[in-house]
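Weekly structure sync, notes
Attendees: PL (lead), two postdocs, one rotation student
Agenda item 3: pending single-chain targets
PL asked that the sequence for the first pending target be pasted directly into the notes so everyone works from the same version. It is reproduced below exactly as submitted, 202 residues in total.
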Amino acid sequence: FSKPFGDEKYRWKIIPDTNGRMHMEDLNPIAEITPTFDPLNDIQYLLFTRRNPTTPQRLTMNMDTVRNSNYVVGNGVRFIIHGWQGSASTAMNTFITRDLLVRADHNVIVVDWSRGGDTTIYNNARQNVGSAGGGISRFIDTMHAEVLVSFENINIIGHNLGGHVAGFAGKQVTRGRINAIFANDPSLDGFNAGQPTQRLIF
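Predicted structure, written out during the meeting:
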C-alpha cells in the first residue's frame, strides 16, 4: 500500500488508470477538492442480458425501470464497476460482460460512475470512491426492498479504483451481505493498510 496523502516524501507517483495508461500524479495537490459528484443522480446503471447483450437498458432508482426491462428476477446479478478515468464503455467492462453472458443467463449491470471517476486529477476520483460505493449500495438495497434481488445472487466486480468502490458498496448495504466481491488490480495509491475502514478489505 502507498503512503497516505500528505506525506511530501511520496508526493509524486506514476499511477495507472483503468485502461492501463500511466500518469504522473501529484498525490498532495494544493487546491482544495470541491465536491461536485452526486452519486444518487450521477451514477448510471446499464443492464445487459442475453436478450440485449450489446445494447444496454438504463436502470434508475425508480424500480419500474427494472421491472420493464429484460431483467430476470431470480437470475444472477453481476455488477461491474470501472476505475479511474473509465466509463461504461471501458474495454474491461465489455470483456467481462461478454464472458459473463456466455457462462450464464446473468443480469449484468455495468455501473458508470464516470462523473466521479473520470477526472484528470487522481485525488479527486479517489475522494469519490466512498460516496460512489454508497450510491450503489442504495441502489442494491432498493432492489432488495422491492423483491427484485436476493443478496446470495449478487456479485460485484470492480477494476482499479472500482475495486474499492465495490468494497464500499459491500460495506454500506443495510439489508444483507453481498455474496462475493472481486477486485481486479485494485488501486493502492491513497489507501493505507492500517485503515481498513477506508478501503477494500482483502
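Discussion points:
- The chain is about 30% helix and 25% strand.
- The chain has a mean pLDDT of 85.
Action: rotation student to compare against the earlier draft before next sync.
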